Amino acid sequence: MTTKHERASALLAVSTVIFALRKDDETGGEPQVWLPLVRRIREPFQGRWALPGGPLRVGEDLAYAAGRTLNETTGLAPSYLEQLYAFGDASRSSGAERVVSIVYWALVRGEEAERAVVGENVAWFPADHLPELAFDHNLIVEYALWRLRTKMEYSRIAHAFLGERFTLAQLREVHEAVLGRALDPANFRRTIEASGAVVATDEYLTGTPHRPPRLYRYDDAVDLADAGPLPLQQHFFKGES
Amino acid sequence: MTTKHERASALLAVSTVIFALRKDDETGGEPQVWLPLVRRIREPFQGRWALPGGPLRVGEDLAYAAGRTLNETTGLAPSYLEQLYAFGDASRSSGAERVVSIVYWALVRGEEAERAVVGENVAWFPADHLPELAFDHNLIVEYALWRLRTKMEYSRIAHAFLGERFTLAQLREVHEAVLGRALDPANFRRTIEASGAVVATDEYLTGTPHRPPRLYRYDDAVDLADAGPLPLQQHFFKGES
């Protein structure tokens, strides 16, 4: 601790990975994970697609900037916005100055995604089939997908895609869309019921011709916020109760 | 997007929350979550306790800096080191320049914690009974505890505290220490077995006088890294396979 080291500083940027479950407009089929990208209109990487985002503004808070980029790109307000990771290694910046990108991810419900405005130079892509993106954004999307798929197993991420009440078939469809593979309905039901994460309600799905399926909800009692409310949580789970 | 906004820059700092399960040297009793803190020897907050860490050095990578502060404070190499959160809102810095702190958290096994060197101006504190710390470090520890307790329910965090093989009683003790409350042994066994997260091995704990308890391990087949290995994961789970 006697050596004098020069202190690192950086330019700050915020990027947002916005995941929605969508069906392919042309081929139809099962829903998949899609995300909107923005075409860069200046160097570096002019013409390449990139995550929504950009420089943080002086005085601007991180989560606010993430919500702003989400809104500017899609016209949506996020129901689930969470900090994903800070990318800031010295080697990732090509310029003279280090750039630290704080990456947020947002999950958008199907009916919200349909309302999304697609502006100029914005397009939606299936997350598993992306072109070569600007900067290290392919790596960031890969990591976000890995977190989504890992977290799906144990958390209420499906809730962000589904709403308050859902059938087990709807929940399974979300899991299938995120994991990218079919799941056995009986096994899925057993696993979900054993986990205790969801509870049956007294309500049934309406508008179905035959025997209407039962609606479930996440068990709030298992919500593990035992540590009590933290001011910070509001940043992570905006719109979640 | 026609307005010109001034771009934010920041000084970079890294802090590390180092959690270990320890018994109180004086009172004994059940193990609890402890963490080492460093007494500040200069302003601001001179004399207050703070998380290990400090300015990031020019050219230094984030995870490397976190491992360095862990090593400088405890003499330990981390078995579990993961980025927790980037704190960088404009309001958190008292000086003229914004400071972005990238916070890592490390979990240290019991036998490692016992080997930890306690240097000058370093002391261990029970995480639930901290004095008023420097900066916003109380808030950071609270958030880290919340993440630990939430994540414990669904993940292999216990593994970082336990090693490869463990009895269900040892696993329950880790959960009890982290959650800060006693758990019913029969309920705990049922929940863990239903989760499918751990599998019984053919081995038994040796050195016990009566019927030796069976050893369990985490089920690698349930390791959810289906998305394939990402270069980034090595940063998060250093030392984990």
Automatic annotation (TrEMBL), chains A, B:
It comes from the Bacteria. Residues 11-149 form the Nudix hydrolase domain. This is NUDIX domain-containing protein. Pfam families: NUDIX, WHD_NrtR.
